[in-house]
Amino acid sequence: MNKNVFAGVFAGVLAVGLLLGPSLSWITPTADAQAPQGTTKNVLLIAEEVVVDVAPDNALHPGGIKYNAMTFNGTIPAPVIAVDQGDTLNVTLRNEGKTIHSLDFHAGIGPSQASGSGPLQPGESKSWTLKADNAGVFMYHCAADALMGVWEHIANGMYGAVVVHPTNEAPAKEFYITFSELYDTADQGLFKGANGTGSFDLTKFVEDQPDLVLTNGMAHKYVPSVGKYAKTDLNPNGTHFKVKPGELTRWYLLNPGPNDGVSFHFINGMIDVHDGFIKDRYGTQLLNDETWWVPPGSASVIESTFPEEGIYVGVDHAMADVLKGGAFAVEAVNNSTATDHPPGTWVAPKGSSVVSGNATEAPTATNSTA
Ligand SMILES: [Cu+2]
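^ thats the input. predicted complex w/ copper (II) ion below
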C-alpha cells in the first residue's frame, strides 16, 4: 500500500475499526492491607541507564525500535507512587547509573521535599521527606545536573507520577497512563525503522519533531491492530485495558512532555476531570467533557464510565500523535475483574499499605510502611 494512503487509512479507521488481539496474562496486584491514616511510607528509586523497546515490530516500524533510555527502577515510566492525603512519604534516590541524576517532585514544596534535590554522582544515595498535604496527581522526574540536561533525562524516560488520594475519594478502578515524546538519533522515520539502537536527538528535540509518542514507554503499546477492512497489526503481542461496563474508572494521566501537550479524549466516551495539579481547583469536576488538554510537565485525574460492552480508545486527539503511537484500547467487558490491569498500570488504592505498583513491576520499590 502507498505509504501516504496507509497513513491516512491508519488515522481514519482507528475510531471505527479497532480489533483486539488475543488476551494476555495479567499481573495480579499483591494482596494489600489497610494502612492507618497519616501513615509514613517509603519508596526507593534507583537511577540507571538501560536499553528498552520503544516501538513494536510492525509496518510502521520494521524490526521494532530499541532505545538507550534513562530510568528509575528500570522502566519507562517510573513507578506510580500512591499515598493518602495526610501521609508522609520518604523518598530515597540511589544513583546506579553512569552519569549524574537527581529528583524533582512536583508534589513537594522546597528543596527539603525533593522538589529540587541537587545532583547525585554515580554511586551516591540521598533521602527526602514529603508531606502529602495536597490531593491530586503530580509529576516527578530527574532534573539531571542542576537542570543541565534535564530535557534529555526526561525525554529518555526519567519520569513518573505521585498520586495523593483525597480524603473524600469515591471508589473506582484506577489506572496509570503516561503520554510522552521520543526524539531518537537512530529512528529513520515511519516505514523505515531504525539504524541500530538510538539515543536522544537534540536537533529533533529543539525543532519539536518527535519520532514517536509513547504510552507507558512504548508506541502503540496497547493498540493490537487497526482497521476493520484494511486490518493492520500494530502490536499483536500487546495488551489492552479492561473495565466492566458501567463501573467508575479513574485514569491518572501524566504528560511529562518534554515539549508537547496532550489533547486527551476517549473515542466512544465522555470524561470528567479533576485538575489535580492546581491545588485550589482540585475537587472541581468538569462534567461530560469531550477533550482535555494536559500541558507538558503536568498530570490530570480523569474519570470515565463506559456504559456498554465494546471498544473505547483513549487518544491524544492531535492525529499525528495517534499515528506516532499515542493511543490505547479499552475493552468494556462483563468478565473484567478488579485486578486485570496491564503490567505497570495498577495504582495502590486509597487506604493501602502499599506505596507503589506490583513488586514484579517495580522490583526495587520497597512497598513498605514505617
Ligand atoms: Cu537523570
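The chain is about 10% helix and 35% strand.
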